[in-house]
Amino acid sequence: MLKAVLAALMLTITPAQADELRGTGDLGLIVERETGSLLVVDRSERAALGRIEGLGDLSHASLVYSPDERFAYVFGRDGGLTKVDILTRQVVRRVVQAGNSIGGAISDDGQLIAVANYEPGGVRVFDAETLELVADVPMGSKTVGIADAPGSRFIVATWDTGEVWIIDHSHSPAQPGITRLKGIGANPYDALLTSDGRRYIVGLFGEKGLTQIDLWQDPPEVTRFLPDYGRDQPDMPVYKMPHLQGWTLADGVFALPAVGLHQLLWVDADSLTEIARTELAGQPVFALARPDRREVWVNFAPPDNDKLQVVNTLTHEVLDTLTPGKGVLHMEFAPRGREVWLSVRDENRVEIRDTRSREVLGEIEARAPSGIFFTDRAHRTGL
Amino acid sequence: MARLALMPMLLAGAAMAAPPDATRQDELRHLVRQDCGSCHGLRRTGGLGRPITPEALAEREPGDLAEVILDGLPGTAMPGWRPLLTEDEARWIADYLMKTETE
């Protein structure tokens, strides 16, 4: 206990060596949701380097990285947009830009930060250097599933009105072109953009089925698929909305967490038809492909959030059920997939496992950890 | 009307059974903060779900709130928690939400 306290104290007071040369490619940030802080971690050392504090309400927080992997932009529940320097471990700038936010994205040129807000409903776009407001796009609805599309564009879905908006900053950052697609479906709860920037897939809470927007077509092509999905079975209550970032395109197949069912759904990406289902131990939240795509790792909503399941991409069979501990909120793979970091919120620790042997390789103390974000995200579209 | 009809049952249930013990109360506080917090925010100021601070709930009846907790709100993202909570526990949470400020 004393050791833990001392370790925590050291993290807080050790000054960052800003002049010490080092790369950032193996660094990461872990959101500590209760305390409004970020833990800076070193993947190679499997250790915490320090802590950045003063980020406000970090429930449901997410972040994106600058192209140089030095700065992170953190989106807090309280509408806070905070730019932090992971080398000096300091808050560089912070603005409270709305009353209630859900997430954000960085443009492909690294110049613009877009924040999706619940209150007031819409998207606000900021200069990545100064955090000054560049464009305000009110939508009259809570917004979900914002992602960066190639060509200085952002794409977002609207919960209340069932639309998808494409915001194009390529001609004039301050006066973006808007493409508004209506009739996407009732209550989109999240969405994902595939890493090639082509397919934006919207999950619906208010009705069955899913919607795909094909951004390679001009105008973008809207396709509903799996319209009867889940209708033949009694839905179970959804105690936590699934997250679709990290929905997986593995071997030409999507692995999708079902809403209200204890299943993983396998969908052929070309025909958008179901090819298999896997029975799971609970309501899936994240279904993430290991970077080599050979396995899909799944975590769960309460009351099954102490577990993880590993599913074989080819056979769709559950290979392993792991029980890391209470409140497994998030998983982040090392960029090439050798290890996975797991936040175990209720046990105040992050567990590091080998993705092949599943052995525990290390552990880091963290205060109620939720999202884990490695810097390689800087170079991936749609995160 | 259906809600009014249920009220006497809930009240009767609360009168007969004991409230959750101290250990269970800790678990329920944790559930409110983390699991309700997924949608309503850690500080209960709202998110996908509406704010559920004491101020926001000032006009509500605790028995009515307990019913929403147990059976959810059809047509919204609010699930029914009946599989995980007893009626007494839901009533305890309703009272807790109405009188306890978040840190």
From TrEMBL, chain B:
Against Gene3D superfamilies, the record matches this protein to: Cytochrome c-like domain
Q: Signal peptide location in the record?
A: 1-17
Q: Which Pfam families match?
A: Cytochrome_CBB3
Q: Does the keyword Heme apply?
A: yes
The keyword GTP-binding is assigned to this record: no
Where are its TM segments located?
A: none
Keywords assigned by UniProt, alphabetized: Heme, Iron, Metal-binding, Signal
Please list the residue ranges annotated as the Cytochrome c domain.
20-101
Which GO molecular function entries does the Swiss-Prot or TrEMBL record give? electron transfer activity; heme binding; metal ion binding
Under the heading PROSITE patterns, the entry gives: CYTC
The name this protein carries in UniProt is Cytochrome c domain-containing protein
